[in-house]
Amino acid sequence: MYQKTIGYSRQYIDQDDINSVIEVLKSDFLTTGPKVDEFEEAIKKYLNVKHAVCVSSGTASLHIAALSLLNKGDKVLTTPNSFLATSNAIVYAGAIPIFVDVDAHANIDLNLCEDILKKGNSIKAIFAVDFAGNMIDPEGLIYLKEKYGVKILEDCAHSLGATWKNYKAGDCKFCDVATLSFHPVKSITSAEGGCIVTNNDYIAKKALMLRNHGIVRNKNEFIYKDDDNPLYFEMQDLGFNYRLSDVHSALGLSQLKKIDFFLETRRKLAKIYDAAFVDTQIKPLHTNAESSYHLYVVRVNFKELGKNRSSIMKSLKSKGIHLQTHYIPINAQPFYQNMGYNPHSTPKALEYYNQCLSIPLFVGLTEQDQKFVIDALKSEILS
Ligand SMILES: *Cc1c(COP(=O)(O)O)cnc(C)c1O
Fold first, then answer.
1. Which of 13, 39, 171, 338 has its CA 20 to 30 A from that of 49?
2. C-beta of residue 195 within 8 angstroms of C-beta of residue 57
3. Is 146 in the same domain as 249?
4. Candidate from 180, 181, 192 with most ligand 1 atoms within 8 A of CB, to mutate
C-alpha cells in the first residue's frame, strides 16, 4: 500500500531552481565562479550588511566565525538547546563552551548570562541561537555587549527572514558576526552551504582567507616579497577547503528570490496550528509573530497526561508522520559528558527536551496533510 511520508521539514524546489542549476552545469565554472559572488551580493543586500562570505556548510561558517572571534582557552556562553555544530565550533577553536539554561522560548536565558558575566568570569563571547526561528531579544544582547564587552555571534541557521522590531536576524546590528545555513530544511537551501555575515572588516578578511586554505593573493598583503612569479601567493594561516561551489550558489540564489513567499507560507501554516491547539494540552512553543518558523515546536507534559512520547512518535510514524525532537541537550551527549559537562546543570533545557515535539512545517505542506497531522496528534495525545 502506498503511504505518504510527512516529515517535520523538507525543501521546496521549483522549476526556476532546477533551471538555475542546469545553467551553471553548462557554463565554464562549477566552482568559485560568478555565482558565488552573485549569491554573496544578494545576501548582503537582503540583510543590509557589509560582508557576506559563503562557505560549504553552516558548520563551516560557525567554525570560521569561531576562529575569527576566539583564542584558545577563551570561555564562551552558549545554549544546550541547539544543533551540535554551535558548541562544536567553540571546541574546534580550542575554546571552552559554558552551557547556560534556556528561557520560556527555549532560547539562551540572557538573565542567566548576566549572572555569569557579573561575576567577572572573563567571558569572551556569547554564541546565541535563534531557536526555531524566534529571535533572541536584540536589545538584551546589545545591553550585555556594551556593559560587559562580550562578543556576540548570532547563529541564524533557523532564523533567516525573522525580524524583531527594527532588527532582522543576521543584520549584524547587535552582533559581531552571524552565521547562516542553507541545509535543505532551513529557510532557503543550496543543498549544503552556509555564510558568514559581518560588518567587521577583520572578520570578513579572515573568513575569506580561512575558507581557502589561508591563502592570500592580494600583492599588497604579502608578508614576503613576491619574486618574479606572476602567480605567487602566500599561505598566511592554517585554513581549509570550505569553498561553496557555483552549482550550490546558483541554487541558493534562486531560492533567496522566493524567501518572502517561503516565510509567508510558514507563518500561515503556523497560525493554523496555533488555532488548532488552543485550550488543549498541546502547547505551541512561545514565539513572536515575526519568527521565521524554521520549526513548529509543541510542548506536551507527557508525564502529567500519563502518556509516553516515544510510543506516540512510533504510532504516528506508522501513519506516515515523522516527528522530531529538537534538541537533545548538547551537554547530554557522551562527547560532552566525557569533558565533564552534565545536562542536569541546565534543568530547564532538559525538562524542555522531555516535553518537545517538532511537528511538520514546510512550504509544500498541503492543507489536507496538515489537517491529517492535527487530527492524528490530537487523537494520540489528547484522548
Ligand atoms: C543546521 C544547523 C547548523 C549547521 O548547519 P549545516 O549547514 O547543517 O552545517 C548550525 N546551527 C544550527 C542551530 C543548525 O540548526
1. 13
2. no
3. yes
4. 181
Question: Is there a domain that residue 293 lies in?
Answer: yes
Query: 188 and 326 share a domain?
Result: no
Write down the residue that cell numbers 511520508 correspond to: 5
Range of the domain at 324: 259-382
**pTM: predicted TM-score of the whole model, two decimal places:** 0.97
End-to-end CA distance of the chain: 27
Write out residues in the chain with pLDDT < 70, as ranges: 1-2
> What is the C-alpha to C-alpha distance for residues 9 and 133, in angstroms, rounded to an integer?
14
pLDDT at 1: 45
pLDDT tens track for 57-109: 999 999 999 999 999 999 999 999 999 999 999 999 999 999 999 999 999 99
B/e letters for 353-374, b = 16+ CB within 10 Å, e = fewer, are bebbbbbbbbbebeeeebebbb
Nearest to 134 by CA among 163, 100, 103: 163
User: Is 111 within a domain?
Assistant: yes
Q: What is the 3-state secondary structure (H, E, C) of 72-87?
A: CCCEEEECCCCCCHHH
Q: Within a 10 A sphere around the Cβ of 334, how many other Cβ atoms?
A: 7
State the virtual CA torsion across 245, 251, 253, 257 in degrees, nearest 10.
-170
44 and 147: one domain?
A: yes
**Residues 86 and 177 placed together within one structural domain of the fold:** yes
Question: Are residues 181 and 45 in contact, defined by beta-carbon separation less than 8 angstroms?
Answer: no
Is 2 among the domain residues? Answer: no
